[in-house]
Fold:
Amino acid sequence: MIFDKQENNTTIVTQETGSTRDFCNRLEEAYDKVRRDNIIINLFSLGTLTINDLLEFLELSNKHRGGRKSFVIVTNKVNYDEVPDELVVVPTLREAHDIIEMEEIERDLDFN
Structure:
């Protein structure tokens, strides 16, 4: 697991091998390192993905978003219409950063 801390209180977490379940478990173990940051989960390196793979992150996403921080998953290997509304999934890192920027503005304005 690779942690790439960005300047704007955002950390990109990348897993290059293994299952999403292993990735999620390892992320939960290391969560204290990133809990104060917005988190981008980069899943580009993983082979095929299903909606069930993404659901592995649902509990952690809800916990993190409940702490008023963004949690965005990046992959272009799923049908976005099948992704539940509770998860934020986008196809590119640029879009992930844009989502975080919009959510930061909403939090600053107390919309969220």
User: Anything to note?
Assistant: The beta strands are 2-5, 10-14, 38-42, 71-74, 88-90. The chain has one domain: 2-108. The chain has a mean pLDDT of 91. The domain at 2-108 is CATH 3.30.750.24 (Transcription Regulator spoIIAA).
